[in-house]
Amino acid sequence: MSTDISTKFVVEKAKTSRFSEVDFETLVFGQVFTDHMFECDYIDGEWQTPIIRPYQPIMVAPSLKVFHYGQAVFEGMKAYKDDDGQVWMFRPDQNQVRINKSSKRLAIPEFPKELFFEALNRLLVLDEEWVRKGDGNVLYIRPFVIATEPAIMAATSTQYKFMIIMSPVKSYFRGDVNVVIAEEYSRAANGGVGAAKAAGNYAGQFYPTNLAKAEGYQQVIWTDDTTHEYLEEAGTMNAFFRINDTLITAPVSDRILDGVTRKSVIDIAKREGIPVEVRRIKVAEIVEASKNGSLKEIFGAGTAVVISPVKSFSHAGVHYPINQPKDTYTSLFKKLITDIQYNRAEDTFGWRYKVSAANY
Ligand SMILES: *Cc1c(COP(=O)(O)O)cnc(C)c1O
Question: Which atom of ligand 1 is nearest to the CA of 76?
């Protein structure tokens, strides 16, 4: 569907492609980018001409508000290629709604829905070669918005830049994850920005995560900021706990991000007849379940890793290994979700989105 804005869409194609220079076997997550990027500025109360141009550095003033006050939000999405060469996305409507929710919380103007989808479709059609066939090959898509007013007064920016960059990645088994359950630091607080995909949420997690790393753990599972008694999420992933055959995850709140993978797991669990409870879960409950042998699995769910199994957790200085059963929910959900994403399974929920030049 074309709109007034799309008739002004500018596309500057790259003269040559970097595709043949890339060693796809040794890709490190998020270090290589496709030939093109999308850029759209917000000036004088309006989004300006949308532009696709060759991927390149952007030149900006050091006074840019984003550098000083952190007004920035982002999204994480993926594109998949099926065996017939068709490119698909997974529930991109959810990311479109969420980036605007995040923007609203950070006082950033919302980005028009039609333009969001037009930009994605145009980029993916142009850089279609970068979405490679085969299980594990995937294109990670990073839309983001930054405050670009060149002025250091601490007030809402009057200018913004919305961009989309895309990075080919290979999902491989990264080894099990050992986690520390937070007792001192917090990721988010009531009334704060924890439910937004705000850049600063990540900045605040690096230091406590580094402390966990120094102890031999890879990630932190955050708890509520008031009592540290309730399990919340992993900071880039929502957390799931399996006690006997029941799957438990915390309800989303001011402090917990409403993950697309999380809600997909919940819907699939219901479809598969797996008991699933969305409720507050106490640290004491999983410690007890670990002691009596009913804690079967913990896993994280998020776009980047899909489903990531947790091998052990630590709380109050005690290490608790998790003895996973032979048939894990972790591998079941990973298979059921990726089969939908790669167009290998029936899409009973209508989650797949077909990328096409017909969309603009
Ligand atoms: C992005 C993110 C997730 C996962 O969300 P998905 O939509 O499944 O990718 C979970 N927690 C936080 C804090 C996140 O930023």
Answer: 9
Whether 3 has a pLDDT exceeding 70, the answer reads no
Kindly report the CATH class assigned to 3-170+353-359.
Answer: alpha beta
**Extents of the domains making up the chain:** 3-170+353-359, 177-325
Q: For residue 144, what are the β-bridge partners?
A: 74, 163
Whose Cα sits closest to atom 12 in ligand 1? 236
DSSP string, 211-260: HHHHTT--EEE-B-TTTS-EE-B-SSSEEEEEETTEEEEPPPBTTB---H
156-189 pLDDT tens trace: 999 999 999 999 998 766 677 999 999 999 999 9
pLDDT, tens digit, 9 for 90 and up, residues 186-203: 999 999 999 999 999 999
CATH topology for 177-325? D-amino Acid Aminotransferase; Chain A, domain 2 (3.20.10)
* pLDDT of 1 over the 50 cut: no
Residue nearest to atom 5 of ligand 1 (CA): 259
